[in-house]
């Protein structure tokens, strides 16, 4: 995006087209570039334009609004398929929950980025392969590979969405980092939408109950089922058309939670020593430990995505470095625990999946920690940390594909 902005400075029309095509990445890229462009008349104009924040909520173009309403309805109708076709709900939702929203968001970004026919074919083909594979797997509820495939196919769909988000830009690192930031923003805005929806649900049901109508069953089976899939889609639309909505909230959350998570993690590691619990002999504790690891790693990645676009305050970078270093320790404990369990009780699909995931996370965290150390030593810029993160994202996608599609065959669908 930065290269495209620079080459378009002599063509105001092309610059406007770039902005209208993808407002959020354009604004981030231009803001990062402006110190180098200051003094250029057109650049000064765009800086004033992008710095102005309207108090009014923008609803975008009519065409975009129609597209968002259409894909929200499609997502809601997919969620209603068990009721329409008398499909077992447990079977349907355990396998297809990711296919309710992710393909709709992929379609939105493919349309917004005006991707080529080849890219559309890749998006549609990848989604269909996942849909057919996961639904034609043997219905053995005790199968570990089935559960692993159902979990990891969501990560595959998340990767497909990332492909649609990035589009066909040449600067993939910047767009991938923007994708991580988009995920953080989406969590914030979707959470607010769901809270507001929950309050509205309680008020609506309560008001109807006062006049003698019991609408709970109808409301949850229709309004809620249609509304839940629409929340992240509407949230995405609001982020794209009104970047200022959460543009200032997400960085604050990242800066607030990073030190809190660091303190919590250190206290938790000390508490483990006195608790008598350990991940070596307690399977459930190991699962929780790994969930903690993934959550903290996500916070690090989102914080880097936010901080690299706003400020490079040294105390904030030190917090991220210490958090990464402590998370490497947590990962080392988890990795040693899974290796111990494999040596004692042998390999299983779950242990193989956790082992592979932990090895990948450890390598990624070591690379990120090393880059953060260079930043605090003033030998590198924080943007280089973001590049390290984004470079590694396709490796996670590849591992999700392996677990989803190959593990069932490697372990005989057990």
TrEMBL record:
The chain crosses the membrane at residues 65-85, 92-111, 117-134, 146-166, 186-208, 220-240, 252-273, 285-305, 317-340, 352-373, 393-413. The keyword Membrane applies. Keywords: Membrane, Transmembrane, Transmembrane helix. This is DUF4153 domain-containing protein.
């Amino acid at each position: 995006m930065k290269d495209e902005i620079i080459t378009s400075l002599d063509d105001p029309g092309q610059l406007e087209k770039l902005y209208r095509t993808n407002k959020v990445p354009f604004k981030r890229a231009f803001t990062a570039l402006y110190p180098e462009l200051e003094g250029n008349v057109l650049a000064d104009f765009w800086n004033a334009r992008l710095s102005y924040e309207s108090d009014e909520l923008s609803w975008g173009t009519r065409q975009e609004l129609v597209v968002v309403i259409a894909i929200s309805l499609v997502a809601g109708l997919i969620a209603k398929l068990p009721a329409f076709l008398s499909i077992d709900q447990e079977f349907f939702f355990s396998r297809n929950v990711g296919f309710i929203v992710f393909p709709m968001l992929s379609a939105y970004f493919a349309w917004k980025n005006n991707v080529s026919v080849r890219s559309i074919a890749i998006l549609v083909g990848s989604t269909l392969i996942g849909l057919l594979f996961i639904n034609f797997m043997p219905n053995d509820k005790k199968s570990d590979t089935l559960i692993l495939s159902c979990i990891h196919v969501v990560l595959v769909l998340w990767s497909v969405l990332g492909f649609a988000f990035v589009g066909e830009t040449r600067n993939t690192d910047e767009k991938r980092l923007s994708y991580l930031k988009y995920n953080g923003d989406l969590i914030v805005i979707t959470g607010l939408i769901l809270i507001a929806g929950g309050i509205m649900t309680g008020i609506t049901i309560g008001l109807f109950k006062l006049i003698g109508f019991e609408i709970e069953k109808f409301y949850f089976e229709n309004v809620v089922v249609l509304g839940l899939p629409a929340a992240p889609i509407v949230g995405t639309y609001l982020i794209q058309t009104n970047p200022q909505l959460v543009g200032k909230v997400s960085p604050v959350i990242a800066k607030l939670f990073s030190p809190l998570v660091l303190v919590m993690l250190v206290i938790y590691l000390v508490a483990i020593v006195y608790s008598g619990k350990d991940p070596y002999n307690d399977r459930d504790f190991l699962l929780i430990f790994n969930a903690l690891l993934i959550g903290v790693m996500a916070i690090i990645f989102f914080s880097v995505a936010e901080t690299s676009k706003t400020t490079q305050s040294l105390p904030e970078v030190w917090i991220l470095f210490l958090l990464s270093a402590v998370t490497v320790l947590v990962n080392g404990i988890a990795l040693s625990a899974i290796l111990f369990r494999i040596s004692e009780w042998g390999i299983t699909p779950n242990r193989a999946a956790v082992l592979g995931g932990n090895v990948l996370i450890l390598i990624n965290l070591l690379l990120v920690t090393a880059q953060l150390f260079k930043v605090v030593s003033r030998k590198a810029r924080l943007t280089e940390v973001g590049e390290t993160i984004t470079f590694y994202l396709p490796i996670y996608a590849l591992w999700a594909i392996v677990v989803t599609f190959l593990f069932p065959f490697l372990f005989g669908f057990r």
